Each structure stands twice: as structure tokens, then as C-alpha cells.
């Protein structure tokens, strides 16, 4: 089930962030992001009880300002990858962005994350630049590939 992110999800998402990224958002940082009027976030939740928020298996978080959106962080638990959760989360974010009048969505993805790049490309994102040595890695640094998605209606 894809649903809007709640404050009660911050701890579970922070744990998933820490498991997936060297530079991860903390629960407090996520909570602060949620307080911003530009916040947009969704979770993939397999809880039987909707009040339980520790069964999150994926999330996407970004912000929308005027006609621009940016995806800040996005992950799916390894055990749930390849089952469509990432596609569903990204699709929900793009749907919400369209509903809010966005014409362009931007993101950065690690150059060594081919699966994520393929997911974005399959949704119509195109490469728009590179940030050299942007991500910290235990064995050095990794470039960030900048990608953008433009809603076609904006250019009709």
C-alpha cells in the first residue's frame, strides 16, 4: 500500500535511510522536513494494522515549490526490491507533482547506482548533468548524476 508519509514514520524511515546511505537523514531531520509547506513524501507500507508504522518497506521524499519539484531521498528495503514498490512510489510522487502544477522534477542519483538510474529513465527522466565526487563512500567519492523529468503539457 502506498500512502502519504506521517510524522510517526520518521523513526522507521531514518533506520532505512541509515541502512542504505552513507549520508542519511535522521528522524529529527525528517520530522523537520515534514513541517515545511513544500514537503511531499510517500511510503510503501505492508502493515496489516494501518496504525503501525514500523513496517515500512520503502519511501520517497521530496519537496515541491511553485512549478518545480525535487526528489531528496528514495529507497526500498533490499528484500522488497524488484517487486514494483519503487515504481509505485515514484509514480505516486510524479502524480502528486502533476496535481500540484509542477512542470519539472529534478533529482540526483549516484553514478554507481545503475538500478536507480534505469528506474528513473523508465519513467522518462533524462540526464541533465554531473556533480563530480558528490557522494561520500567508505572507499572514496562517487559522482552524482543529475536527472530531470519534464511534464509534456508544460511545453505544448
In short:
The protein has helices at residues 10-20, 27-34, 85-99, 114-122; strands spanning 2-4, 39-45, 56-65, 68-76, 104-110, 126-137, 140-150. It is α+β, with helices and mostly antiparallel strands.
Properties at a glance:
single chain; 156 residues; alpha+beta; Aminopeptidase; seven-stranded mixed beta sheet; 4 helices; 7 strands; 28% helix; 38% strand
Task: Please render the helix and strand layout as text.
Blueprint: E1 2-4, H1 10-20, H2 27-34, E2 39-45, E3 56-65, E4 68-76, H3 85-99, E5 104-110, H4 114-122, E6 126-137, E7 140-150
Parallel strand pairs: 4-5
Antiparallel strand pairs: 1-2, 2-3, 3-4, 5-7, 6-7
Helix pairs in contact: 1-2
Please provide a written account of the structure.
This protein has 156 residues and is an alpha+beta fold. The chain has one domain: Gcn5-related N-acetyltransferase (GNAT) (Aminopeptidase), CATH 3.40.630.30. 28% of the residues lie in helices and 38% in strands. It is built from four helices and seven strands. A seven-stranded mixed sheet has the order 1-2-3-4-5-7-6, sandwiched between helices. A hairpin with a 2-residue loop joins strand 3 and strand 4. Helix 1 packs across helix 2. The longest helix has 15 residues. It starts with a strand and ends in a 6-residue tail after the last strand.
Amino acid at each position: 500500500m502506498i500512502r502519504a508519509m506521517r510524522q510517526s514514520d520518521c523513526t522507521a524511515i531514518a533506520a532505512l535511510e541509515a541502512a542504505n546511505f552513507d549520508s542519511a537523514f535522521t528522524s529529527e531531520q525528517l520530522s523537520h522536513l515534514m513541517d515545511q509547506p513544500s514537503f511531499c513524501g510517500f511510503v510503501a507500507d505492508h502493515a496489516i494494522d494501518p496504525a503501525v508504522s514500523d513496517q515500512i518497506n520503502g519511501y520517497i521524499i521530496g519537496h515541491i515549490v511553485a512549478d518545480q519539484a525535487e526528489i531528496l531521498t528514495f529507497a526500498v528495503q533490499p528484500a522488497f526490491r524488484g517487486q514494483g514498490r519503487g515504481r509505485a512510489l515514484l509514480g505516486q510522487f510524479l502524480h502528486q507533482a502533476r496535481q500540484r502544477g509542477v512542470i519539472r522534477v529534478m533529482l540526483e542519483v549516484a553514478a554507481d547506482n545503475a538500478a536507480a538510474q534505469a528506474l528513473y529513465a523508465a519513467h522518462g527522466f533524462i540526464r541533465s548533468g554531473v556533480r563530480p565526487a558528490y557522494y561520500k563512500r567508505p572507499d572514496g567519492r562517487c559522482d552524482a548524476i543529475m536527472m530531470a523529468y519534464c511534464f509534456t503539457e508544460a511545453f505544448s
